[in-house]
Design brief:
The chain is α/β, with parallel strands linked by helices and 246 residues long. It has a single domain, classed as Vaccinia Virus protein VP39 (Rossmann fold, 3-Layer(aba) Sandwich). The chain has helices at 5-12, 20-37, 48-60, 85-91, 104-116, 129-132, 153-160, 179-191, 232-235; strands spanning 73-77, 96-101, 122-126, 142-147, 164-174, 194-203, 210-218. It has a 7-stranded mixed sheet with strand order 3-2-1-4-5-7-6, sandwiched between helices. Helix 1 (5-12) packs parallel to helix 3 (48-60) and helix 3 crosses helix 4. It is globular, with a radius of gyration of 17 Å.
């Protein structure tokens, strides 16, 4: 028997009221996370209250930074165990979601998870962002791209911005105070067709856990040479000011 009161109280801070079905989906999610985590490395956080706060509530913090109403198309790059896109899909079922991860075993988990939760309008794709963003049916096809990946903003922007339509948004979840990181990435973001719009700082409800979301607007098409071939963005990040790579 799980105590859901704190989770519900946290979400109420953001005016989110879960239905009985949504509560059940989050609990099923937690149970599947624990079950599959025994045979693969999905998360180091396994305690119930911590998962609820640091994974589920954290994933939903995007509502403090942007509107998610309607049938927006959303891609989660480096989805891992499904954060943040699966919690967003549970709360906003009209979202059309694509989960992208480079490890096939994680994709198998995500496929089993979305089936168990009874979610529709969501797919899990195996592949690297650098490859899939070159495909016509993926490139500049999404209203929103989200990522909680650990890469820095320069690298992450090269992975994510090519997926977004002009007029769409890239939302990068960051746990630390990342002003210096975003400043270093601004030239690369501009080169990739983006523009830093805002930074939203917050503490997760009823906690001292600091969170940061950067919203980057897609203002023009990404040049065709980006993203570069697999591995290049991390090894040779786009430099500030020079227009060249490091």
């Amino acid at each position: 028997m799980y105590h859901t009161e704190q989770f519900e109280k946290d979400l109420l801070e953001w005016d989110i009221v879960l239905t009985d079905r949504q509560q059940e989906q989050f609990l099923l999610y937690y149970e599947m996370l624990l079950e599959w985590n025994q045979v693969m490395n999905l998360t180091a956080i396994t305690e119930y209250e911590e998962v609820m706060k640091k994974h589920f509530t954290d994933s939903l913090s995007l509502i403090k930074a942007m509107e998610l109403t309607g049938s927006l198309t959303l891609i989660d790059v480096g989805s891992g165990a499904g954060f943040p896109a699966v919690p967003l899909k549970i709360v906003f079922p009209d979202l059309k979601v694509t989960l992208l991860d480079s490890l096939n075993k994680r994709i198998r988990f995500l496929q089993a998870l979305t089936e168990k939760l009874g979610l529709t309008g969501i797919e899990a794709l195996h592949g690297r962002a650098e490859d899939l963003a070159k495909q016509k049916n993926m490139r500049e096809q999404f209203d929103v791209c989200v990522s909680r990946a650990v890469a820095n903003m320069t690298v992450l922007s090269e992975y994510c911005l090519p997926f977004i339509k002009v007029g769409g948004k890239f939302a990068a979840y960051k746990s630390e105070k990342s002003e210096e990181e975003i400043a270093e990435a601004e030239d690369a973001i501009e080169r990739l067709g983006g523009k830093v719009e805002r930074q939203v700082k917050m503490y997760l409800p009823h906690s001292d856990i600091f969170r940061n979301i950067f919203i980057i607007g897609k203002v023009r098409e990404t040049p065709k040479e980006f993203p570069r071939k697999a591995g290049t963005a991390a090894k040779e990040p786009l430099c500030k000011n020079t227009g060249r790579n490091r």
